């Protein structure tokens, strides 16, 4: 499996909320940078994804995920995530990216994940939450 195929499998597993499949694609020493937090290991990384999914299920009427994957010139992969959110008749689309780094030796696994906010997306999401009466996590 090459880097693009691995990144596509990660994206598909995350889109499907398949955390066991996600964990199997991560290096045991994986590091996930999200905001000012650093999570280490597949269990911590997948717990973060599970917390987000649980929050969405508890606070929103519908959440669906899409993603696209591309390889960067530096050998990392960029996962472009699109979350489609709904509360009642109010809809919002939130976009962000995660940059994946890979192990240098076999087996090929994801060694690093870095969450990247896109300009204006977080602000628009928070404004939408306020409009629909949802308290952000």
Structure description:
With 137 residues, the chain is of the alpha+beta class. The protein has one domain: Nuclear Transport Factor 2, Chain: A. The protein is built from 4 helices and 6 strands, in the order ααββαββββα. Strands 2-1-6-5-4-3 form a 6-stranded mixed β-sheet. The longest helix is centred in the middle third of the chain and has 18 residues. It starts with a helix and ends in a 5-residue tail after the last helix. The relative contact order is 0.18. The model has no long low-confidence stretch (mean pLDDT 96).
- The third-level CATH topology is Nuclear Transport Factor 2, Chain: A
- Arithmetic mean of pLDDT: 96
The order of strands across the largest sheet is: 2-1-6-5-4-3
- Count the beta strands: 6
With helices defined by DSSP (H or I, 4 residues minimum), what is the helix count? Answer: 4
Shape summary = elongated
Order of helices and strands: HHEEHEEEEH
Strand content: 35-45%
Helix-strand makeup class: alpha+beta
- Rg over C-alpha atoms, rounded to the nearest angstrom: 15 Å
Q: Give the CA-CA distance, first to last residue.
A: 36 Å
Largest sheet: 6 strands, mixed
Low-confidence segments, given as residue ranges, are none
Which bin fits the share of residues in helices?
Answer: 25-40%
Task: Assign the CATH architecture.
Answer: Roll
